[in-house]
Fold:
Amino acid sequence: MRLQAKVTFAMRELDRLKCIQGVVDGELRLYQAAERLGLTTRQMRRLVRRYDQEGPVGLISRHRNRPSNSRLKAEVAEQAFAIIRERYADFGPTLAAEKLRTRRSIDLAKETVRRLQIASGMWIPRKLRPPKLHQPRARRACVGELVQIDGCEHRWFEDRAPVCTALVYVDDATSALKIVSFSGSESTFAYFEATRQYIERYGQPLVGVARVGPDLLRVHSTFAPRPVRTYDDLHGDTRRLARHIKRLRGTSVCHRFERGLQVPATDRISQSAGRSR
Structure:
């Protein structure tokens, strides 16, 4: 009585089994099966011989359940893990791999370090992290209390005029367009002119003018006297537009990224600018 065993085949091995079975049954010639599998006729003869001797199990790869020849040595992995746990427990995989390479002369890929940290619980994969919840910012209650400014460079007039920048002033409470001004570039003087138009038509905002959006890094020269490269560089800078508006009634301009909004302010401004075309 033959014993039945459960054998798992990969899809590649199943395709190989079908072709070799076709050769055994006489449905395929040896060279045809070799062309389908991308093998030589010599390899096909060896597989057919192994199939005759061992059956379908003989077609399973001999490398299965065997350790890789290029695997990380156990002593190196233990040494790296001990150093990471002792000195770099709060480091990410990239920084930990860099420190191991520069200070400990242990050259490991960052993905190898990542696997070591995940196995020890020192690093949580991004897919397994809980989602971050941000409290959305409520809109202002009164019209004219807060105005958001943004500029968008686009070919607004198609081929009838060169590329220009639309400076849009949007009321935070109602998302109504207050000022739409076109200029050659998003410069300080262009904002001065648009702000003058707003103040002459609607008066001074109660709280101030909010400059938000990721493109602040691109137009840093308008709002900051020095280049802005990170989020932290945005805090504490004295900006030209802020200084001039502050001289009017002591109202300052708020230049910062508003994080956690369900509908980002820049999206609302861009949508409003698109509707004004």
In short: Residues 146-275 form a domain with the Nucleotidyltransferase; domain 5 fold (CATH 3.30.420).
